[in-house]
Amino acid sequence: MFEGLGSTSNDQEVVITGAAAVVAGMVGSHALWQALKRDELLANHHLPEPHRAALNGLTVGEQQVLSVQQQLGLAVGEMAWSQALLPSSRHPLRGECQPSPQDPWRLRAGVVSASALGYATALLDELAQSEGRPSATSLSRWRGNGLGAAVALRFGLRGEQLNLNSASSTGAQALAVAARCITRGEQELMVVVGAEPALPTLLMEANQRTGAIASSGSSRPLTAHRSGMVPREAAGCLVLESRQRAEARGAVVLGRVVTTASGCEAHHLVAPLPGQALSDHLLARLLQGAGGLDASAIDWICLHATGTRRFDQEELQFVRRAFPNVPWISAMKRSLGHGLGAAGVVEAALMLEGLQRGSVPPWPDDIDPCLDWPSHPPRPAPAPRLALQLSSGMGGVVVMNLLGHA
Questions:
Q1: Of the ranges 2-11, 97-106, 248-257, 360-369, which one carries the lowest mean pLDDT score?
Q2: Three-state SS at 236
Q3: pLDDT at res. 8
Q4: Which of 33, 72, 370, 384 has the most CB atoms within 10 Å of its CB?
Q5: What domain range is 296 assigned to?
Q6: Which residues neighbour 332 within 8 Å (Cβ) at sequence distance 6 or greater?
Q7: How many domains does the chain have?
Q8: Rounded distance, CA 195 to CA 277, Å?
Q9: Comparing C-alpha atoms, which of 398, 359, 383, 6 is closest to residue 169?
Q10: Domain at 348, CATH number
């Protein structure tokens, strides 16, 4: 269980200087923000291979040794890295004799990768295409650290390489872990990258058998007719560093990671803990880590809201109990679909977009009356300064990240 970021006297303020997202073939936080404003579910498109190649800047030979998951991760990595105004040098992914960047700061620059099923997808896709005969580079695509390794190699990140899988909460947990590495002074810069390609048939069927996939093919979290999630290809990347380092090199600060809290319910392999007792504890710790912040200071809550009936109900009951003054809420998966392990990174990138714009997505319409939640916003839409990300995954991992205006 990770402590809040404000618990030691040596803490460094964590800022975000680069952010990028791709969902269902739509590229960039600006375009995705407009989709959120429309509150319409994105069609099930994929980022075409030529477009991936254009974004990630890889050679044809490098493309051939990488999975779709790795290519997606490197595409958003390139966008976020460039936005953060970091060095343009790149390490080739083939050819060990070529020198890698040796700048001293890279020894304290690392990566946290996030994916729930990307590695399994790479394995199944390759087995289907090669009739079960692996190649000499197959393990580099199937391994659990395949995404993190590719990003670390490409950008010369010689610090921590952490590769997480905590189901739907993976992306948010990756952000929390990366921030912790910086605030404790263990690393100077961390790249958080999440990537999930389109699910192959076998994994889609497995999710359908659990009841997690929407039976109608459309996901409308929080509505009375919600019946599960709709998976979407997704990738997101954030560049985190200390404010001192960012300002010293002239980077533009997009936003702050104010504090985080996470833990495990240790209740059930699939189902959430009734009553959300752990969420109450984590919120109290998060507010304490933010210097004793009052819950009413949080302008905007980004719900996890996948569209599964029980998870949505449990989450809104917690918010109702923990925030007596009804806060502004959004449920991004209504528009984006569910990016699985990458969802938390994508949603954090879009929360930054809202904080920069001074805007929030529309109040969710058609809310299920059984959820005991206002069907219309109780106040005008805020110009947010503090936004809370809620995330939870099968297996009980719960994460809360509090992001702040730059």
A1: 2-11
A2: strand
A3: 38
A4: 72
A5: 1-406
A6: 36, 302, 305, 346, 347, 350, 361
A7: 1
A8: 31
A9: 398
A10: 3.40.47.10
